[in-house]
Amino acid sequence: MNHQSNTWRKYLTDYNEGLGLVYERFVLNDFLDDLRRKYDIRSVLEAPLYGMAGVSGINSYALAKAGVEVTLVDDTPERLAGVERIWREDLQQPVGLVGIQPDEWGRLPFADNSFDMAWCWASLWYIQDPAGLLRELARVSRDIVFVAMPNNIQVGYWMRKLVIDREFFAHHDERWTETGRIRRILAEAKVRFVDEGVLDTPPWPDTVMPANEVLKRLGIRSRKLEEQFTGDGWQWSTMAYYTGAQPELRQRVMKYAWLDHAPLPWQIKAIWAHHRYLVGRMDKG
User: Fold this and answer.
1) Best CA proximity match to 229, nearest among 209, 250, 205
2) What ranges do the domains of the chain cover?
3) With contact defined as beta carbons under 8 Å apart, do 154 and 273 qualify?
4) What whole-number distance in Å separates Cα of residue 71 and Cα of residue 94?
5) Of 16, 23, 18, which is closest to residue 253 (Cα–Cα)?
6) Chain-centre distance of CA 178, in angstroms?
7) What whole-number distance in Å separates Cα of residue 277 and Cα of residue 262?
8) Quick one: residue 215, left, alpha or beta (phi over 0 = left, psi -120 to 50 = alpha)?
């Protein structure tokens, strides 16, 4: 059975996520906003609310800020309570929060066609019933289904798998990184695909852990490098941008987005991109 580490607890109060995660959030925000505008999205379901490392439950914040009605689902009461506090005290935006049991991802407590978009980010291999969740995302969406998972051909994925985080792959089903598998299940649920590609393509590999921790796991001991990636000078927090404490953060981070923005076929970017995605529309006829 898949399981998660408990690192999410740290990020319920410590918002220092690292440069890679802040970059990932900004790129995802732009993509979500493009979907919102293109398809006139006014309500979304994000299920689960975790999947991306770092601070849980804030992937849909930019949509909420734009006036979209956001509903989030979680299967861990402690994390759900922490996310509720973040939205109430720090983000100060309305959000719908729904708790379920870990074995209920295949039967979400929503009526058919409840949301303009249902989506999940990098979370399928964390839950007990990934196929059931995909079918549920299609059932509850009246229009858009958006699903993304880590890109299993890029360099950082294999570095993580073979060298620095082998334990993770001993407990998580890699079949849920296969876009073809996801596509088949959604197609059976009457999803008609309108877009696919890659997202999150910065100039560094995707290791899903802080740079200093990567160096340690690779056995690299360098005081100079350690100082470069730790301390007060190495603080990266999307929450600081969201709350207005660091309004310049997006400009600082997105200077690295030249490859994401390059007019290249996504198949070429896939060699380095951290995530692959599918976007579909529901065929309710």
Assistant:
1) 209
2) 7-282
3) yes
4) 9
5) 23
6) 16
7) 17
8) alpha
Of the candidates 264, 279, 260, which has an alpha carbon nearest to the alpha carbon of residue 179? Answer: 279
3-state secondary structure of 133: helix
CATH architecture of the domain formed by 7-282: 3-Layer(aba) Sandwich (3.40)
Q: Which of 103, 207, 105, 125 is nearest to 172 (CA)?
A: 125
* pLDDT, block means (10 residues), the chain with 285 residues: 68 91 96 98 97 94 98 97 98 97 97 98 94 98 97 79 70 87 97 96 68 50 51 79 96 94 93 94 80
Q: Which amino acid is at 162?
A: L
123 contacts: CB under 8 Å, gap ≥ 6: 48, 50, 51
User: Whole-prediction pTM value?
Assistant: 0.88
- Asked whether the beta carbons of 131 and 56 are under 8 A apart, the reply is no
Per DSSP bridges, beta strands 43-46 and 191-199 are unpaired
Cα 87 to Cα 26, 65, 71, 125, 239, distances in angstroms = 18, 11, 12, 26, 11
C-alpha radius of gyration, the chain, whole number: 18
Residue-level pLDDT at 164: 67
Residue burial 193-228, b: 16+ Cβ < 10 Å; e: rest: eeeebbbbbbeebbbbbbbbebbeeeeeeeeeeeee
How many other β-carbons are positioned within 10 Å of the β-carbon of residue 66? 14
